[in-house]
Automatic annotation (TrEMBL):
Top class in the EC scheme: transferase
Molecular function in Gene Ontology: kinase activity
Pfam families named among the record's database cross-references: HATPase_c, HisKA
Keywords on record: ATP-binding, Kinase, Nucleotide-binding, Phosphoprotein, Transferase, Two-component regulatory system
Source taxon at top rank: Bacteria
Originating gene: baeS
Reactions catalysed, as given in the entry: ATP + protein L-histidine = ADP + protein N-phospho-L-histidine
Protein name in UniProt: histidine kinase
Domain Histidine kinase per the UniProt entry, residue ranges: 167-379
SUPFAM superfamilies listed in its UniProt record: ATPase domain of HSP90 chaperone/DNA topoisomerase II/histidine kinase (SSF55874), Homodimeric domain of signal transducing histidine kinase (SSF47384)
Assigned EC number: 2.7.13.3
Amino acid sequence: MIEPVIRKRPDIPESIEKITEKARELEAIYDVVQDPLVLIDSDFKVQRANLATIQFAKNHDFESVLNKPCYEVLYQRTDICPYCPAAQTVDKKENGFQNFLTPKSREIFFKVGEKKQTLQLEFYPYPKNEGEHWIVEKISDVTKQKEKEEESFRMRNLASLGILVSGIAHELNNPLTGISLTLQNLKANWQNASPEQIEKRLEMIKNDISRAAIIVSDIISFAKSDRVKVTLGDIIDTINRAKDTVVRLYPHLSKNINWKILFDHEYQFPFHPQKMERLFMNIFRNSLQAFDYRPGEITIDVRKTKNWIHIIVEDNAGGIPEAIIQKIFDPFFTNNKSGTGTGLGLSICYSIVQEHDGTISVKSTEGKTRFTISFPASGENTEDPL
């Protein structure tokens, strides 16, 4: 900023000297600001600018900036900038920027030679006279900040991809573990096993391969919004299969567990058999891991109220802390202290229930955890469950 020459004269009142000194202090503060600050009148001409503005405009001094069009000095344009919030008032100069009464901001791409910049422009109304407003414009170069944000976004995408791959491995690990254990058993006992026993184990391998194929198919069609295909099935049979599979996959965790499956008759309704089996496998596995090899009991109670079928799964493994119980259905949330879990199991359960127009909730009191899963008996959600 051009500094005015001040000569002290004995005939100048002391108050004027103080005002002049204050003005010089304000200009010094103005020039210290690292971002360009420009005062623009209602004719789009620069009336005041700080030192950073001169550096931004390049090859200019204060004299060549003042009273020049802002769009020409700052952005090398021949007409009003299209992103200027006061551009719509250009035909109403006699009234100033009367419609521009609140601060506004714009993000623009600006190119100088070969250099590309991302600029954050902030516009503040300055009431000059009655019915007339000028503008204070602040220009911030946010190029590096945007580059960091884009890099962070790329890193988050890579992290999400890693989590997705981890989730796929998590889902495929169940049938692959079953295949591995069954093959080990066959290898150790095939000479002494009867044909029926061998055939039974081969059937188990076949079922596990089928389950893995379904998981891969689900991954391939992940982006599709097609409604899940359902068939009429017996939920008791599905629960029993899920329990037997989990016991086979986790024999040591299941060793001291007492299972109770309570129902008064068969319950049939439309559902996807393989997905429903995965739902209960994940819940049962979650309970087994909570017991951590300790003895306990898992109770599955199936009942019907009006048009809903309810499956209540309860364990006495110690309960879920209140601080995290609201998070357990969140993708990738895990409370597994061993660090081996991916936090996808209960999230998958929630997704499967939603696909079947059902509801799932969890409560934990007195060392017990209870999952309540409700499905419309007709396959159509017509009323609220419990």
